[in-house]
Design brief:
single chain, Enolase-like, domain 1, TIM Barrel, binds 2-succinylbenzoate, binds magnesium ion
Length: 368
């Protein structure tokens, strides 16, 4: 595509209920939306950083700065480019993967819309809908957790993930198992433990969880391997998997037997497909994680999750799990426990300009 300009917006989207993890509570999703303006039309992307660097070292104001100071100018300098060139052009700049992913998605969307081709088809989707799991935050107490999980099960979600942290692990998991029996259940620690907690984490073995996600810190690859050898519950990595190389290394070391793929965390949907491919080759199941995406990233995640190696339900829930008002005209809905893979050109969703404007708290445009 022939890039003419890139527009960035910081959005504030209120959440329908607070979302609490081991690293903090969010009540408003702060996110950056990217519009790539090209000679053949616009494309949209989303930079999934959060307000503070708690899940990852990336955060919104850092993303806002690095995008305008370095990454967007590098793309505008090239001018005419294919989506497959974006990662290479941005490669000299270390990390900032969520920013790179959002920029790449906007250019990919513009290119696919111009070609009249859906993102799912481009990425290699093999199904037209994907099973939908939900990530449930830490609640006031186990009774409130059971109530929240019950609501999501009633809505039709086919897999429940609960967030855990030290002191809110075994009893919370036991409460959900006791209340709902043999539902597909997994836990996510968001790096809140150390190897010294291995005995506590081993107590979770009795709940027959699908997996435990990211118990230890991002760079604790060897410790994850040590822990995995002590648990019956499969260890899944999220934060640690920042690239296809990191995924290959983790598998080689026995640090994970399942991988959560998030395009933002790994620098884009193309790198996400490479991780999918290498895991599939290795017989390692993957699933599509989420970052409280708007309708833009949610559409892209549904397309990614439709690839054949995504054999576990992902955190690709309906838009209304987080938002009363999305920025797309047809937000992703839950239908019979599944979400549909959009079939329109590019992302296959249209931006609602009024909703976008209402959510915008900062805007910048860089031109060629
Ligand atoms: O660890 O998967 C995570 C949200 C923000 C940051 C990290 C995580 C999450 C979630 C929510 O679990 C996933 C979703 O978007 O539904
Ligand atoms: Mg996670």
């Amino acid at each position: 595509v022939a890039l003419e300009a890139i527009e960035l917006r910081v959005l504030h989207l209120p959440l329908v209920s607070p979302f609490t993890t081991s690293f903090g509570t969010e009540t408003v999703r702060e996110v950056i939306v990217v519009r790539a303006r090209t000679a053949d039309g616009d494309g949209w992307g989303e930079i999934v950083t959060q307000q503070a660097p708690l899940y990852s070292s990336e955060y919104t104001q850092g993303a806002w700065d690095v995008a305008q100071r370095f990454l967007v100018p590098a793309l505008l300098d090239v001018g005419t480019l294919a989506p497959e060139q974006v990662a290479g052009i941005l490669e000299p700049f270390v990390a900032h993967r969520m920013v790179k992913a959002g920029l790449e998605l906007a250019i990919l969307d513009a290119a696919l819309r111009a070609e009249g081709r859906p993102l799912g088809e481009y990425l290699g989707a093999v199904v037209d809908r994907v099973p939908s799991g939900v990530s449930v935050g830490i609640q006031q107490d186990p009774a409130a957790l059971v109530e929240a999980v019950g609501g999501y099960l009633d809505a039709g979600y086919v897999r429940i993930k609960i967030k855990i942290k030290p002191g809110r692990d075994v009893a919370d998991t036991a409460a959900v198992r006791d209340a709902f029996g043999a539902i597909p259940l997994q836990v996510d620690a968001n790096s809140a433990y150390t190897l010294a907690d291995a005995a506590t984490l081993a107590e979770l073995d009795r709940f027959d969880l699908l997996l435990i996600e990211q118990p230890l810190q991002e760079d604790d690859i060897v410790d994850h391997a040590t822990l995995a050898a002590r648990l019956r519950t499969p260890v899944c990595l999220d934060e640690s998997i920042v690239s296809a190389k990191a995924a290959a290394d983790a598998l080689a070391l026995g640090a994970a037997s399942v991988i959560n793929i998030k395009a933002g965390r790994v620098g884009g949907y193309l790198e996400a497909v490479r991780i999918h491919d290498l895991c599939r080759e290795a017989g390692v199941p993957v699933w599509c994680g989420g970052m409280l995406e708007t309708g833009i990233g949610r559409a892209a995640n549904a397309a990614l999750a439709a690839l054949p190696g995504f054999t576990l339900p992902g955190d690709v829930s309906a838009s209304d799990r987080f938002y009363a008002r999305d920025i797309v005209t047809e937000p992703i809905r839950l239908e019979d426990g599944h979400v549909r893979v959009p079939t329109g050109h590019g992302l296959g969703v249209e931006i609602d300009p009024v909703a976008l404007e209402d959510a915008t708290v900062a805007r910048a445009e860089l031109r060629r």
